[in-house]
UniProtKB/TrEMBL annotation:
This is DUF3667 domain-containing protein. Keywords: Membrane, Transmembrane, Transmembrane helix. It comes from Christiangramia sabulilitoris. The chain crosses the membrane at residues 75-92, 130-148, 155-178, 184-204, 216-241. It comes from the Bacteria. InterPro entries: DUF3667.
Length: 242
């Protein structure tokens, strides 16, 4: 088939564009096409999201190495993966009518200054909306403890994937909290810690015990940055915006 590719403008010489890979014959968009694209992108075992999730759980070191070394089309991009998991969390939270445990909010010290108390409550209610701070913290702490392995931007790539998995775990925790009437957020954090250590041991070469200790400390620092940063942002929002 000859002609010009509608996507990139290259000259066609077959059923697919040799430059961008798009089909040569493109007609008007139909509901069937949208449904097929949605199904393939999310539920197909060969879709980037399925391959990304499978590899992140079974062989995270493979995904990190291949993506950093140039295999970009095979996997879901890190920022997009993080955003997708965050959007999925917000959707699930809305559908099941999840509300933050008010018992936790009730434990805020009554003697705390009004602005600090409001900021604390705001942070508790919106903590998962500040997950980008967890990404920032993970990247910084990884660079701190494994400073000579990768560049900071490469650690942030890894951090986006790990934060995406943390968000996925939070989704399951949210569902269990609503339908099981149990607050299991500490369990989710523990699972995230175990997964983080697992990723580091699989990805970094060297003594596994030393890597495990370093990754444990790195996770604690990242969570500290996450919580402290969330409170500071909450304080600013409560003080100057709300």
């Amino acid at each position: 088939m000859s002609g010009i590719c509608n996507n990139c403008g290259a000259r066609l010489s077959g059923n697919y564009c040799s430059t961008c890979g798009q089909r040569a014959k493109i007609g008007p968009i139909t509901f069937s096409e949208l449904r097929e694209d949605f199904s393939q992108s999310l539920f197909s075992v060969e879709s980037p999201i399925a391959i990304t999730l499978k590899t992140l759980f079974l062989k995270p070191e493979k995904l990190f190495s291949e993506y950093l070394n140039g295999s970009r089309k095979k996997y879901y991009r890190p920022v997009a993966f993080f955003i997708l998991m965050t959007a999925l969390y917000l959707l699930v939270r809305s559908l099941i009518g999840f509300e933050t445990n008010m018992d936790t909010i009730a434990t805020v010290d009554e003697n705390t200054a009004d602005v600090q108390k409001e900021a604390t409550v705001f942070m508790i209610l919106n903590i998962n909306k500040f997950l980008f701070l967890l990404v920032f913290g993970l990247g910084i702490s990884l660079k701190l403890f494994f400073y000579n392995r990768l560049r900071i931007i490469e650690y942030w790539v890894i951090a986006f994937y790990i934060a995406g998995i943390y968000t996925l775990l939070t989704i399951f925790g949210t569902v269990i909290t609503v339908y099981g009437s149990k607050q299991i957020q500490p369990v989710i954090i523990l699972l995230a810690l175990v997964y983080f250590i697992y990723c580091c041991i699989r990805f970094f070469e060297g003594n596994r015990f030393v890597i495990g200790v370093k990754s444990f400390l790195a996770f604690l620092i990242a969570m500290l940055i996450y919580v402290a940063g969330s409170f500071e942002l909450s304080y600013l929002i409560v003080s100057y915006i709300i």
